[in-house]
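User: structure tokens for this one?
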Amino acid sequence: MSGRTKFYGIIALIMAPFMFYGGITMTTSDEVDCGGQTMTDGDICTTYDDGASTDRTVEEQRSSNRTTGFILFAVAIGMAGFGVYTIVQISRGRQAAPAMHHPQPGYPQQPYPQQPGQYPPPGAYPQQAPYPQQGNPQPGPYPQQQPPPGQWQQPGQYPPR
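Assistant:
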């Protein structure tokens, strides 16, 4: 995680409670605000945006304030989530760093076969017939296969003459 992302995550976590408070206040307040001034019945709120003016009545401005409050509330939740995610990633990164210097547990080293060509060692896997399936007759024993001529033979076996 880059330093810039960490910085933005921490700033988002700091700003989120203020935005949350602003959103709650705007959605639950009975006062209607227009540019920092409290409106009363019969007032008209005029706002300017890119050179165009918009006139709103008290009820229209109340609705606009509530919509803005819900937007602030949603953005605050998103910022808080991003901030918490960032803090968790930072804390995991610090915990994982020392562990990289220690050997990790694993499987112990297996001994090598004593003679070349004897892998797996004789008797390592018991030979048993497969379990019969229900409803099917059990097949007969599998024939023993001889290694190709010229290859190493297991002790006690000799090439056919």
